[in-house]
Amino acid sequence: MRWTEEELAEFQRRTGAAPPPAPAAKAPRAKRAESPLEAELRGHLQVMQLDPVCQFKFHVERKWRFDFAFPDVLVCVDVDGGVFAAENGTEAGRHARGAGIVAGFEKRNAAAELGYLVLCYGPPQVKSGEAALQIERIVNARRRGFTLARELDGAAPAAASSSR
């Protein structure tokens, strides 16, 4: 808080003390670095001419983010690269520990409650291209007004609700 000259004079007159120092300005928070797995998936999606929003914040009260999102069709994507950490002899990350797993459930359930379809992938799906192919199918189907299940059955898109 910055003091005006009048406020400073009034404070000193009333208390006889110097005003408290102004709080130091918070340094801007460093942007989280993209993981190699996220970069690989983003590259696959760009080749497919899909342009996701990166580090998408979907909740107004929480600081939750998804690695990628397609907000126009309510699709979010999380890449969990540390799921095999313990098998590879490295320390497991937040996503592979009990509290982190439960926190992930909470985040994904909140997104579902807001209408988002949440897709989660690990290293095998990203590296094989399976993740990008599935994301492309789902996003494109939703952009055409289909759900993938109806599209696979050959059904037409749902008609707008008719007025009676």
Fold and architecture overview:
The chain has 164 residues and is α+β, with helices and mostly antiparallel strands. The chain has helices at residues 5-15, 36-47, 98-113, 123-128, 130-143, 148-153; strands at residues 53-57, 65-70, 75-79, 117-121. A hairpin with a 4-residue loop joins strand 2 (65-70) and strand 3. It has a domain at 32-49 and 118-127. A 4-stranded mixed β-sheet has the order 1-2-3-4, sandwiched between helices. The longest helix is centred in the middle third of the chain and has 16 residues, at 98-113. Residues 159-164 have low confidence and may be disordered. It is elongated.
Total count of strands = 4
Average pLDDT score: 81
Total count of helical runs of at least 4 residues: 6
How far is it from the N-terminal to the C-terminal residue, by CA?
A: 59 Å
The coarse silhouette is elongated
* Secondary structural class: alpha+beta
What's the story with the biggest beta sheet? Answer: 4 strands, mixed
Approximately how much helix is present in the residues?
A: 25-40%
The proportion of residues in beta strands is: 5-15%
Sheet with the most strands: spatial strand order: 1-2-3-4
Low-confidence stretches at least 5 residues in length (pLDDT < 50)?
A: 159-164
Report the C-alpha radius of gyration, rounded. Answer: 24 Å
SSE ordering: HHEEEHEHHH
